[in-house]
Amino acid sequence: MNHASDHIPVVVTLQVPAKVMAASALDFGTVITGATASANLAVSNPAVPPADELDYSFSAPPGFTAPAGPFQAIAGAFSNNHTIGMSTAGAGDLSGTLIVATDDPDSASKPVLLSGRVLRHAAPSLDSLASVPSGNLDLGYHTSGQFPDSSVRVHNLGYDAQQARLSVSSGVITGGGGRFSIVGGFTSALIAGTGKTYDVHFDDSGAAQDSTYEATLTFKSDDEALPGSHAAPDLVVNLRARPLSEATGVGDVHPAALRLYPAHPNPLSGETWLGFDLPGRAPVSLEIFDLSGRRVSSLASGVREAGRYQTSWRPLDASGGRIAGGLYFARLSVPGRTLVERLVVLP
Prior knowledge:
By secondary structure, the chain is mostly beta strands. The protein has strands at 25-32, 37-43, 54-59, 64-65, 71-73, 80-86, 92-102, 109-119, 124-125, 134-143, 150-156, 166-175, 180-182, 189-191, 196-202, 213-223, 235-244, 259-264, 272-278, 282-290, 295-304, 307-313, 326-334, 337-345. This is Choice-of-anchor D domain-containing protein.
């Protein structure tokens, strides 16, 4: 016993702590309202076995979602994949910080930056200032060879950085005996803040004189190709043209009703033509007004005999300077009646 040890063996087991590994940022990209927007976040424990298991949970910022947890990641094992979601209920730029709360002593609160953009749906319209899903394009009444091409313009109403672009995929004309066509043929367009103009032509060769030709131009469009994109409502334009016989000048027509014809071309950047039918002798005024109600120009004034009349207008002020682009109104007035047509002056 003199040589016996009085030491008791002691065994101490030390376990390496867990480590957290995850991306520092997730970008959800750009989507359209109503889309499903999600991104994958991989969380792993890169500590060398037999290191401790990683315990963790998520705390998502406003506008984003994360699974409730808690979760565990085994040291040296494959990553755990988690779906992080982004709200697409409204348009806007979203950002925030997802917190991964862990038992990693070196990173108890792992931040993950989240970001994404949600756009409103595109808004097709025939007008740049108001929602106009349908309209009329009257190419007028002319003798053979005198029909000018007239324009129709497609807009993405209210476009800004938080609205999807409008993809115009087709423009089809039906009816009219095949006499109406888009000059140069239809070309697709991706419309942001500037509208796309399509010129319409009427072929009067061999057309029945003193007959009215009518057709329909239908534009189909969608949101640009992003998650959440869907088809937009059609835009419909009613086309009209009336070839006159050589012996029947504009002043020889005897209309049955008062009518103000749409300007052509419209929208316009230079000269446009307006016409009106007067069924009986009467005092007439044809004037142009801006949105504030201010009179910009007087095109006709005084007593006129019954007939069909045409006049031109250029978007100029009294001093000969060009007026600002925007929405204007042509107003035809006779005793007891007033007719109004819109005109869009291009910038």
